[in-house]
Amino acid sequence: MKTYEYIVVGGGPAGIFSAIYAGSFGIKTAILEKKNRMGKKILVAGSGQCNITHTGEVKKFLTKYGDHGKFLRTAIYKYSPQDLQSFFKDNGLELVPREDGKVFPITKRSVDVVELLYTLCKKYNIDIIEECKVLSITHKDDFSLNTSLGEFSSKNILLSTGGITFPQTGSNGQGYRFAKTLGHKIVEPKPCLTPIYIRDYPFTELAGISFKDISINIFDANKKISTSNGDILFTHKNLSGPGILDNSRYMKKGNKISLNFINTTLEQFKENFIEYTHIHGKNLTKTFLSTYKLPERFIKNMLFETKICECLKISSLNKKMRDNLGNFLTNYQYEITKLGGIDIGMATNGGINLKEINPKTMESKLVKGLYFAGEIMDIDGDTGGYNIQAAISTGILAARSIAKTK
Ligand SMILES: Cc1cc2nc3c(=O)[nH]c(=O)nc-3n(C[C@H](O)[C@H](O)[C@H](O)COP(=O)(O)OP(=O)(O)OC[C@H]3O[C@@H](n4cnc5c(N)ncnc54)[C@H](O)[C@@H]3O)c2cc1C
Q1: What is the CATH code for 2-191+342-405?
Q2: Could you tell me the residue ranges of all domains in the chain?
Q3: CA–CA separation, 73 vs 194, rounded Å?
């Protein structure tokens, strides 16, 4: 039986940062990681470039986690994106923001981030125990961990086993089982930051076309449940882009989604149509549509979908045709047939119920010495570096809380 003061279960960003900070406070710490290397998800993050955080004020940052940002207040105020940038700079790997606010290591290589974290673990004498799969956890005075490499025990443990998506990186939801056995409730996990599939998908031919900052509404049984603005992208098979990915946490099969491609109301569109027809009645319909700066391929596709011949002059369109165009452009509701699954979702919506975790310490409200950090909790951020920052900030908060109890 190996005994530590702090055992971190899961070597993702949450667990590694927590261990490094605990080590820096002189706490005897081990990371148990079931894969042969830690940080497999960091390696795929940001397409291998690692979009590690985002610029901006913490107050705004906290709006990027759906309705759950409030829970992260202490964690992110105490360890902000600026703190993270200073940390990397001090350790020789500068982070640089892109124009869109996403922050990457200057080398644009996730592997450099992981290598640095290994070096720091060594510096603080963290025992990294790889290919060590935790199988079960029990708690009396201390925690006993039964693993593929034998028994471990510790006064404090961190569950940082991640969510359910990209299971090949190691996070496949096992941590929920440990939390459940220790008495915690789990909000059913589902993939998020994922594209959506819609019935009779009309945009296959438009793969690669994107729209910036358009209005997106989501409906559940005809009731609007979310409205926002964002960028969308047509792919061969589905709708994607940040505006779709970020909203996927609110969506489920059977919901409907409407997209306003021209950020103009249907009424305004009709008025514009009438006015334009009055002056330029001999122009082709597509010439009128191009005044909205729509891509040509999109206009062709829309005319096809609304069964309007490209050869028609604007003055020959009847009221029904005009309304069909207006609806297509402003408020047509597409039915969502499914969301992208665990193989493509970049985060998990759901997880350990936040009501049972103290947001000021990350300690369980039910079991003393049990801490949570990162994606295992019912926290998911928008695309743009928000998930890794939340994982790191919560991991560090847990380590600081343990250091205070020493
Ligand atoms: C393709 C992709 C791209 C992404 N890009 C970005 C990005 O650019 N920016 C961003 O902010 N976020 C990104 N994310 C999300 C981000 O990577 C995760 O939110 C983050 O890694 C979560 O950190 P974590 O430490 O909580 O969990 P994880 O990184 O999932 O780590 C959990 C660890 O626990 C280990 N583990 C699980 N079960 C056990 C067990 N029983 N015993 C021992 N070990 C166990 C796993 O092997 C794993 O190493 C991306 C995700 C994906 C899938």
Answers
A1: 3.50.50.60
A2: 2-191+342-405, 195-339
A3: 26
